[in-house]
Each structure stands twice: as C-alpha cells, then as structure tokens.
Amino acid sequence: IPVDPFDLVIFGGTGDLAKRKIIPGLYRRFVAGQMPEDARIIGAARSELDNDGYRDFARKAIEKYVHAKNHDKDKVRDFLKCLSYFRIDALGQDGWKDLAKIIRKDVVQAFYFSVGPRLFGELAKRLHKYKIAGPDSRIVVEKPFGHDLESAKALNAELAEYFDETQIYRIDHYLGKETVQNLMAVRFANILFEPLWNSQYIDHIQITVSETVGVSGRGGYYDKSGAMRDMVQNHLMQLLCLIAMEPPAHFDPDSVRDEKLKVIRALDPVPAEDIVRGQYRAEGDQPSYIEDAENPDSRTESFLAMKVHIANWRWNGTPFYLRTGKRLRARKSEIAVVFKEPPHSIFEPQEGRRCNELIIHLQPNEGMDLRVTIKEPGPGGMRLMDVALDMSFAEALGEDAEDITDAYERLIMDVIRGNQTLFMRGDEVEAAWAWVDPIIQGWIDRGDRPKPYDAGSSGPEDALMLMHREGRRWREIT
Ligand code: BG6
Fold first, then answer.
1. pLDDT tens profile 153-196
2. Contact (Cβ atoms closer than 8 angstroms) between residue 130 and residue 29
3. Binding site listing for NADP(+)
4. Which residues are catalytic?
5. Which helix or strand (DSSP H or E) is residue 200 part of?
6. Any idea which positions bind NADP(+) (predicted)?
7. Does the pTM exceed 0.90?
8. With contact defined as beta carbons under 8 Å apart, do 225 and 144 qualify?
9. Does ipTM top 0.90?
10. Within 6 Å (CB) of ligand 1, which residues are found?
C-alpha cells in the first residue's frame, strides 16, 4: 500500500548515510510500490551539485548498495525523477526562503537530519524561522543523540523549542530490524512464551552484537564514544527493553515507549566487577585499535561485556548479559533467552547438555530457534540430546534474504506514515544516559584501562569469566 505523497528533504543528502542507507532504502520502497509516484526527495547539502549531479550520485548509490537483482533500468530512471538537489548551508541564512517555496504544503513534509548533532538545533531553528516546517511536519534525527545526559537534555530542549515531541523521530536503526519487531510479535501474539517470561523460568538472557569490522576511518568519532556510547546506550539497551518490558496495553507509540522507559528506569547501577572493557590488538597487517583511533593513550573500549540487573518483580534474580565489540570472530547479533532446568529430573545427569534456549537471530540470517531436549534416536537407552526447532525468516516466508526489508527503509516509511512506535522518545534517551553516565564516570575516576584482546577472538578472557564464575557460559561467536 503506497504511503501518502510526501516531500522528504535529506540534510546531509550527499553524505555516507544517504548513500549507503537512505537512498537505496527509498529506491527499494519505490520498487515495492510503496512510494507514490509524486513523492519528492530533495537532497540538501553544501556541495556544488545540480539535480542531474545528485541523480547521478543516487544512481551510483543504488548500483552499489542495492542487490543487483533489483536493478531495473526503467525503475531506477522513474525513481530518479523523484529526486532533486538543493544547495544549502545549515549554518548560513541564504537559500532558506527558496527552500520554503519549494516544499509543498499539502503533502507530508519530512526533514531528515543526516548530519552531526551540532547542526540539529541550527536546522530546527531555520525550518521554523523560514516557515518551511509546519505543525504537522516531521524531523528525523540520527544518533548519536547526545554524548551524556546533559548534552542529550540540551538537544531535546533545543528541538522542543521548534517542534513538538510528536514531530520528532529519533532513529535507532536496530528498532527497524525485522527480527526486533518480531520479538514483539513472538512475545505478545503467542500464549506460549509469556507465562514463562520471568525470573521463575528464565535463568539469564544474553544479548550479543559482535562485529568483525574495526573503527578505521571513523576513529575520530569512535574514540570519543567507545562501545558504551556507540552501541550499548542505544542499540543494546533498546533490545534489552523489548525483551524485558511488560506487555503494553496497546500497540501504539506511547504505550510501547512507556513500557520501555520503565525498564530503563528499573536498571540497577552496575558495579565495576560486572563490567569488562577491551581494546583489540593488531593482527597481521591489520592495525590495532590504538592505531585505528590514532590515539596512543586511548582508554576507549572497542569491546564491552556487562552483567545487568533489572530491579522489578518480573526480573529479580535473572541477569542480563550484554556484549558487543569490534574486530571479533564473526558478525553476529543475537539474543539468547536461557531457561532454567526443570525442577526435578528423572534422567541421568549428562555432561554438556544444555537447557532450553530461545535464540533470536538478528543478523545475519534473521530468524529464531528454540532449543529443546529430545531422546537421542536409536537403541542406546535413554540418552538425551538437544535439537533446534529452527525458523529462518527467509525460509519460512519463502523470501530471498535480500528481500527482507532493511531497517532504514522501514523506518523512513514509518516517518511518512506518522508512526513513532519504533522511534525513541526524548525521555527514553535521557533515561538511558542517566544510567550510562555514572558507569562511564566510574571508569574515569578509577583510571580504568581496557584489556587487550586478539582481533578475531571473542573478546578478552575476563569477559568469559564474567559468566564462568557463575557457572554460565556465553554462546559461541561463530
Ligand atoms: C552504528 C554504530 O550505530 O551501528 C556502528 O555507530 C556499528 O559502530 C553499527 O557498526 C552496527 O549496525 P549494524 O546494523 O551493522 O549491526
């Protein structure tokens, strides 16, 4: 079903995100018939470009970032007709009146701030001052949304001067991933899981977001952030919220976000012994973190593992283990819900047997599997084994993995539809920083240094100990 006609202005229209995600995503929605023919996408940036130059930029982005089977000359040509370019300086005053004239007043208006956060307020101010945006317009802002609680509050306050909260779409692209939404469907559309979804039946939960890439090329940004600010404060915490939240009364933006906020506010402070930070070493001709970050004294972590407690009735006694890092063994994001043993076993104890686990694979190969214990086939007596009831979404839906909607395309369409469910509310972001800030401050006060780890490993040894010391173990990163 096509969305309503819209004008979408992408500030930072020639940037990396526009090239890799926004334009390819919009093209895929166009091919899927979801973008109305009279939709307009206006790339806005400082570069000297004309409409043809911008279309050329977009064509190259599609060729590079959209799977070849979706390249269709006619479709690309028709899509490019929706695109134009507008040259503007976010900090200047020129051109804004002209932009106001271009934007149609009778369609959905969306402004994507695909720029650094220091420009958010400037853009918001100008959109308001030059009457480009109205009370129904939407603005989309990217992470990082602040660097700490204070800066996030300042950003929220700046945006709130010109826009109502219902107009602000703070992107956390993890919320747009297919499996992440499926998490809500699995939890709240089935009777099977919810009765067991608490500390009485769940031993612990592991959330892993492991990457093989390093930080080369973006060391300047990353070294000021580290895994905590770059991944945990947003993506991992959002995953944690969706796993841990109470069932919302309705599937609407505020009902869902109210429940997520309650989870964040219930997080206990994390003691130093429950956190392991790491930094990758050099490997062959691949540089170390220190070299990538070009900061020989860097104490920034490229790996983080931590044990987190949620202080409420449902989760008291069930730890959540979070782990994320760069240059690890494999690219893999998953959530593992590890159930307890049955209270009484009638079978012989068996070395290496695992408990029931529900594994939610976010990437690659989105899907879920439920590990259950069965009898090993054959005449060998009552020996038990684990099998996975496996559901790859691509397989189950008869889809090519390439056809699973990318997070960005889904989220942009949600902006046009005016659905904020998968976007972070201002108070959520602030609450997340309020929890993260004292942890980071603790590292600074204690002068903590991250532990070195081998590139291609699963992080520092101490991260394994975080679980081993309690008789638990991480799932392998493979
Ligand atoms: C971004 C982080 O938000 O998410 C990056 O800034 C990280 O450091 C990326 O690599 C991971 O996203 P994905 O979708 O590839 O898992």
1. 999 999 999 999 999 999 999 999 988 888 999 999 999 999 99
2. no
3. 12-19, 46, 143
4. 235
5. none
6. 12-19, 46, 143
7. yes
8. yes
9. yes
10. 143, 173, 211, 230, 333
